[in-house]
Write a structure and sequence with these properties.
Layout (H helix, E strand, L loop, with lengths): L2 E4 L1 H6 L7 H9 L3 E5 H14 L2 H15 L3 E3 L3 H13 L4 H11 L7 E3 L3 H9 L6
Parallel strand pairs: 1-2, 1-4, 2-3
Helix pairs in contact: 3-4, 5-6
């Protein structure tokens, strides 16, 4: 088992220096198989565009595209959608937070850790049986 799913809160920390950035990078470095959702890519790019200058975004987006080319990218499909709806019914998570957890849970054959810096999402992920480093 060396699989890690990155929620957007963790993914952004690898490109934008903020609290826990160093910790996040250290955790990610321990894994050889990184997973993200296609929705996470969109969410991260939109957040980076809003938070960075035009010049910074141009640089970071190239780095981001290079990095994500080596990640396992999970599609948003009907299985993930249905699972996210179930998760949101039993938690108070926002839509995208539920989708990220559902993306991991849809891969039932794999043991995977789930990295997030969102407290509510982390609590929900743990309650659903996910390991959160």
């Amino acid at each position: 088992m060396n699989h890690l799913y990155l929620d957007t809160s963790a993914l952004l920390k690898t490109y934008i220096a903020e609290e826990f950035t160093d910790q996040c990078r250290e955790i990610i470095a321990q894994y050889s198989n990184i997973y993200i959702s296609q929705i996470g890519i969109t969410e991260a790019m939109i957040n980076m565009r809003k938070r960075l200058s035009t010049r910074e975004f141009a640089f970071v987006s190239k780095l981001f595209k290079t990095d994500t080319a080596s990640f396992n990218i999970l599609d948003f499909d009907e299985v993930v959608s249905d699972l996210a709806i179930e998760i949101s019914a039993s938690t108070s998570l926002a839509t995208l937070d539920a989708i990220h957890i559902a993306s991991v849970l849809s891969l039932s054959a794999r043991e995977m850790d789930f990295l997030t810096y969102d407290k509510a999402q982390r609590k929900a992920a743990k309650s659903l049986g996910l390991r959160t480093p």
